[in-house]
Write a structure and sequence with these properties.
alpha+beta, 8 helices, 44% helix
Length: 210
């Protein structure tokens, strides 16, 4: 049996040194990559702070004219609100005879139509006389067009409205104007008929001549 041959390191110092260095490199510790901790994960996933926009950094400079205009606008709004409160405080409900009837030829509006066309409130409408007609538990009230326009005019003159709708003929085009064409001595809807078309045509003719 043949024995293995051993290397004579003493006789070959260069080979011995190379072998020693090779073992040393194997035994040297290597850097182990550990998983990140929870705090590190949170830190890396946090949204970076937003940069301030230039609009915020450089706020718009308000001119003295703009300041004065804003002040005037606020003052006008406050004055209008005061006028509305004064106007509302002076409203008195109509206390006339509920059995009253309008004469023949009267142009009138239902309450809802009058409120919508002339921008009036319930309390304002209740200050006007009206012909009430009961019909199957529902009451129909006719308000004279002339009274409604006069009310809108008074509201404007009192400063509680910015627009004089009583002078605007356009509001009558779709206001649903009614006309009392007969009078059978009773309060019923048969005495009234729709006059919207006639009023609309009259408004158009008047507009064409101006």
């Amino acid at each position: 049996m043949t024995r293995g041959r051993f290397c004579d390191f003493a006789s070959t110092p260069t080979l011995y040194l190379a072998t020693l260095l090779n073992f040393t490199s194997i035994l040297e510790p290597t850097e182990i990559q550990c998983p990140p901790t929870a705090q590190q994960c949170v830190a890396t996933t946090q949204t970076p702070p937003r940069k301030k926009s230039r609009d915020r950094e450089h706020k718009k400079q308000v001119t003295p004219e703009e300041k004065e205009a804003a002040k005037t606008k606020r003052s006008a709004t406050e004055v209008l609100q005061e006028k509305k409160e004064e106007w509302a405080a002076g409203l008195k409900p109509w206390t006339g005879d509920e059995r009253m009837r309008w004469p023949l030829g009267t142009l009138a509006l239902f309450k809802a139509d009058a409120k919508g066309a002339f921008k009036l409130t319930e309390a304002e409408m209740l200050t006007l006389p009206h012909e009430s007609i009961p019909n199957s538990g529902k009451s129909y009230s006719y308000y004279a067009l002339s009274d409604v326009k006069a009310l809108a005019r008074r509201k404007f003159l009192a400063g509680a409205s910015l627009v004089d709708l009583s002078a605007d003929s356009h509001v009558l085009e779709n206001a649903g104007v009614q006309k009392k064409h007969t009078d059978n001595g009773q309060r019923n809807r048969g005495n009234w008929g729709d006059a919207s078309t006639a009023v609309r045509n009259a408004v158009k003719r008047a507009r064409a001549t101006t």
